[in-house]
């Protein structure tokens, strides 16, 4: 009976953690997956079976893919060239190192903006491509929020 109470506490914690998806540098969905795996192991896979844990791991993998690709996809949709995307990635890393936690987003934006402006000498096109990266990041945050709430709901369903 005690393990069920722990499961309910984890479920409540997952719903609260789902609200923190918008906080940069806080790996909420990986943390939720680690907790779910620890619960399944402690429970000896009675309430959360290996197949159900695989479903949760699929959500975890999708979340990681969305995290790392949303800004780049947004920039491509905005018209950024591959060369500019490389500048954006370099800007992301540099910004992340200099101004954590939001510096990565700013670095991505300004890296793409700089590269597109130098390449095309057109401020409007450069701003459109760089703005696409920010829109992509926001879209990725929305998708990750949906994934986090789905993860929480599935974990609660798996407990029954």
Q: What would you note in describing this structure?
A:
The chain is an all-alpha fold. It has one domain. It contains six helices and no strands. The chain has helices at residues 2-18, 28-42, 50-77, 82-98, 103-120, 123-159. Helix 2 (28-42) packs parallel to helix 6. The longest helix is centred in the last third of the chain and has 37 residues, at 123-159. The chain is elongated.
- Beta content comes to under 5%
User: What is the first-to-last residue Cα distance?
Assistant: 13 Å
Arithmetic mean of pLDDT: 88
* Record field, number of beta strands: 0
Describe the global form. Answer: elongated
**Structural class, from secondary structure content?**
mainly alpha
Q: Residue ranges: pLDDT <50 for 5 or more in a row?
A: none
Query: Which H/E pattern describes the elements?
Result: HHHHHH
Taken together, the total number of domains comes to 1
């Amino acid at each position: 009976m005690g393990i069920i109470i722990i499961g309910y506490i984890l479920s409540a914690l997952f719903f609260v953690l789902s609200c923190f998806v918008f906080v940069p540098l806080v790996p909420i969905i990986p943390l939720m997956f680690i907790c779910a795996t620890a619960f399944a192991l402690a429970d000896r896979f009675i309430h959360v079976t290996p197949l159900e844990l695989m479903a949760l791991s699929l959500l975890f993998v999708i979340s990681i893919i969305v995290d790392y690709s949303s800004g780049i996809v947004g920039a491509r949709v905005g018209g950024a060239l591959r060369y500019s995307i490389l500048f954006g990635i370099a800007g992301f890393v540099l910004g992340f190192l200099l101004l954590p936690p939001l510096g990565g987003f700013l670095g991505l934006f300004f890296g793409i903006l700089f590269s597109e402006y130098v390449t095309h000498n057109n401020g409007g096109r450069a701003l459109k491509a760089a703005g696409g990266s920010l829109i992509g990041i926001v879209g990725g945050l929305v998708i990750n929020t949906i994934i986090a709430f789905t993860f929480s709901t599935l974990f609660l369903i798996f407990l029954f």
